[in-house]
Design a protein that fits this description.
Elements: E1 5-7, H1 13-24, E2 29-33, H2 38-45, E3 49-52, H3 58-71, E4 77-80, H4 94-127, E5 131-136, H5 140-143, H6 149-169, E6 173-180, H7 191-198, H8 210-221, E7 229-232
EC number: 1.5.1.50
Enzyme class: oxidoreductase
Keywords: Oxidoreductase
C-alpha cells in the first residue's frame, strides 16, 4: 500500500475536490471531517480512510493524532485544509473568536506537524524522495482584512509556520503554502456579491477547485521548492 496523503477538512468544497483528485490517481488518502456529509460516505466507498476530528480543543487534536497513527506508519504528505470563515460581525465574542481562529488555522497544523514528522520521515526514507507539508493560507495574509481580523491573523500565523517548519525539516520534508483568494462561490452568494468579488482580480473569473489541485500537484512533484507561498489570486494584488 502506498503511503497516504492526509487532507484535513475534506468533507466539502476544496478539500473534497482534492480528495477525489487523489483517489482518481490511485493515491491512498486519509481525510478528516467535522460534519459527516454524504460526500464523506462516498469517499469512504471509494477507498478513503475517513476520520472524524474535533480540532476545537487540545484534547481533540491529540485524540485525532493518536487515531491517525493507528491507521498508518507513514505519510506521503499532509495538506492542512481545515478552515473556518468566522468573522467579527458574526461572532461578537472576540476573545473566543480569536482563540478559535488561531486553534484551527495555526495550532492544529503546528501540533500535527510536530507529532507526525516521523510518519513523513518514514515515507522519505522508504521512497528516497522528500515528503510534503502544504498549508492552505489565504490572500489576506498579504493585506489583512478589516472584516475578518482574527481570521486574517490566524492565516498569517500559518504562513509563518510554513517558513519555520521548512527550515526545521529540510531536506527531508518540503513545507509550502498555497494562498488563494476567490476559488469557488458559496451557493447562497447573490449576483451582486459575485459581480463585486469578480472585479477584485485581474482575471475576473471564478477559477474553481482545479486551480488549487494544480498548485498542490506542482508542489508535490517538485524536489526543490520549500518555504514558499504559492499565490493563487488571479492577480488580485495588482488591483
Amino acid at each position: 500500500m502506498t503511503s497516504p496523503i492526509l487532507i484535513t477538512g475534506a468533507g466539502q468544497r476544496i478539500g473534497l475536490a482534492l480528495a477525489k483528485h487523489f483517489l482518481s490517481q490511485g493515491q491512498a488518502i486519509i481525510i478528516t471531517y467535522r460534519t459527516r456529509h454524504r460526500a464523506v460516505d462516498e469517499l469512504e466507498q471509494q477507498g478513503a480512510v475517513c476520520l472524524h476530528a474535533d480540532f476545537s480543543s487540545d484534547a481533540g487534536i491529540a485524540s485525532f493524532i493518536e487515531i491517525l497513527k493507528q491507521h498508518t506508519h507513514s505519510l506521503r504528505a499532509i495538506v492542512h485544509n481545515a478552515s473556518s470563515w468566522d468573522c467579527e460581525a458574526s461572532n461578537p465574542d472576540f476573545s473566543s473568536l480569536f482563540d478559535n481562529m488561531m486553534r484551527i488555522h495555526a495550532k492544529t497544523p503546528y501540533l500535527i506537524n510536530n507529532a507526525c514528522a516521523e510518519l513523513l520521515m518514514t515515507y522519505q526514507a522508504e521512497a528516497c524522495t522528500p515528503a510534503d507539508i502544504i498549508h492552505l493560507t489565504d490572500y489576506v495574509v498579504e493585506t489583512g482584512s478589516p472584516k475578518h481580523i482574527a481570521y486574517a491573523a490566524s492565516k498569517a500565523a500559518l504562513d509563518n509556520l510554513t517558513k519555520s517548519f521548512s527550515a526545521k525539516y529540510a531536506p527531508n520534508i518540503k513545507v509550502n503554502s498555497v494562498a488563494p483568494s476567490l476559488i469557488i462561490f458559496n451557493e447562497h452568494d447573490d449576483e451582486a456579491y459575485r459581480a463585486k468579488t469578480l472585479k477584485k482580480s485581474l482575471m475576473g473569473i471564478e477559477p474553481g477547485c482545479q486551480e488549487i489541485i494544480n498548485s498542490i500537484d506542482l508542489l508535490l512533484r517538485s524536489h526543490y521548492i520549500t518555504g514558499r507561498a504559492l499565490p493563487v489570486d488571479g492577480g488580485r494584488h495588482l488591483k
